[in-house]
Design goal:
Elements: H1 10-27, H2 42-55, H3 63-80, H4 84-100, H5 103-127, H6 131-141, H7 143-215, H8 221-250, H9 267-276, E1 280-285, H10 293-313, E2 318-326, E3 329-336, H11 348-359, E4 363-368, E5 373-380
Parallel strand pairs: 1-2
Antiparallel strand pairs: 2-3, 3-5, 4-5
Helix pairs in contact: 1-2, 1-4, 2-3, 2-4, 3-4, 4-5, 4-7, 5-6, 5-7, 7-8, 7-10, 9-10, 10-11
Length: about 375
């Protein structure tokens, strides 16, 4: 809360101007007029000054109505002989009306001040005996409305500039806040996608393989060892990925990766995990060399999610995995002969696979086919 200086309050302003006027009246300041059309006692002048000082209470919220209400008091003071205290209060009321009034009322007052100056000049030229006298009259009268109007216009202009800069700063701050929220939401979506594709994929494989191992009555020891080896590989991979993600969250800039991202060169490990989960996987892969890192990672995660969904929704099914490059486009495809894959058509897995394909400018198609369920991603290797 800002502290407001008391002398800027309309009450203090009115009290000070009334007190100064009374002092000027008491010392009979030379510029106090005498011998008007309707000369009156000094107490009448004090009453006029008091009325105008009371009207100054509205100099901030009702400056224009206060100025209009003061016009009769101006006329009374002029009839008794123009006095300096009333002129000072009138100038302050004119200043407040131009400064605190509406834009339209300020423009009207500026026009009226210009008309007053032109009228004064014409009257001085007509009534005075020579040009020198006319000029003296003009220079003596015109500053009375000109100075407060000009001063108020300058203060109003500076105030409007300050308000415009403040509004601009608020707008920039709001834009920065929206950008920050968008960045946070994008980072959250990226983290959710990585958690689903990486950690959830490994844990799903562990759960499926453990369930298959528990269902064996008298299983082949070699099969048991293969499944347990795959469970361990998935557990270690989950821990590694989780440590890397925690490291990223703790990093200052968020760009220091503690481990290298998964690539298609690790596809054999992914296929072994899928086979240990019960899928009969047939692979036909020809991984191109020097793939862009983003395309390489997206292709690997899409294959990982597609195989995880196949093992989860179509256990024991046969799955064909294909990786080929054609016309500067990397095509990865997983086709399984189970119908259970359709259960995940609107799930999180399909959303994350679609987001990964779109992030590198590709497309993803997922849906039923002649054999069962197909996931096909086309990722551009080169492009704008």
């Amino acid at each position: 809360m800002t502290w407001r200086r008391p002398w800027r309050s309309p009450v203090w302003h009115a009290v000070l101007t009334f007190g100064l006027g009374c002092v000027l009246f008491a010392v009979d300041f030379p510029l106090v007029g005498h011998g008007g059309l309707l000369p009156g006692p000094d107490w009448a002048r004090v009453l006029v000054l008091g009325g105008m000082s009371l009207l100054q209470l509205g100099r901030e919220r009702a400056a224009v109505p206060a100025l209009v209400a003061a016009l009769p008091l101006w006329a009374v003071d002029a009839a008794m002989g123009v006095s300096l205290p009333v002129l000072l209060v009138a100038g302050d009321q004119l200043y407040a009306a131009v400064l605190n009034g509406s834009r339209r009322s300020s423009q009207v007052l500026v026009v009226l001040a210009g008309v007053f100056m032109v009228g004064t000049l014409v009257a001085a030229l007509v009534l005075a005996d020579d040009l020198r006298t006319s000029l003296l009259i003009f220079l003596g009268v015109c500053p009375l409305p000109l100075v407060p109007v000009w001063w108020a216009l300058n203060v109003r202009q500076q105030r409007e500039i300050a308000e415009a800069e403040r509004a601009r700063a608020d707008q920039l701050a709001r834009i920065a806040e929206l950008d920050r929220e968008a960045a946070v939401n994008a980072e959250r979506a990226s983290m959710a996608r990585d958690l689903h594709d990486v950690i959830a994929g490994h844990l799903s494989a562990i759960a499926i393989q453990s369930e298959a191992l528990l269902s064996l009555q008298d299983g082949d020891p070699e099969t048991v060892r293969t499944v347990l080896r795959s469970v361990r590989e998935n557990s270690v991979a989950s821990l590694t990925e989780m440590r890397a993600m925690i490291g990223l969250l703790r990093a200052q800039d968020g760009h220091d990766e503690l481990t290298s991202p998964a690539r298609l060169r690790e596809l054999d490990r992914l296929l072994r995990s899928a086979r240990a989960s019960g899928l009969r996987v047939r692979a036909d892969t020809d991984v191109p060399a020097d793939l862009p890192a983003a395309v390489d990672l997206s292709a690997y995660r899409i294959l990982q999610e597609a195989l995880t969904n196949a093992a989860k929704h179509a256990p024991g099914a046969a799955a064909d995995v294909s990786v080929r490059q054609a016309d500067r486009t990397l095509v990865v495809q997983v086709v399984n002969d189970g119908a259970g894959g359709a259960l995940n058509a609107s799930g999180t897995g399909l959303i994350t696979m679609t987001e990964r394909a779109q992030a590198v400018g590709g497309v993803l198609l997922a849906g039923p086919c002649e054999r069962g369920w197909r996931v096909r991603a086309e990722l551009p290797v080169e492009g704008e």
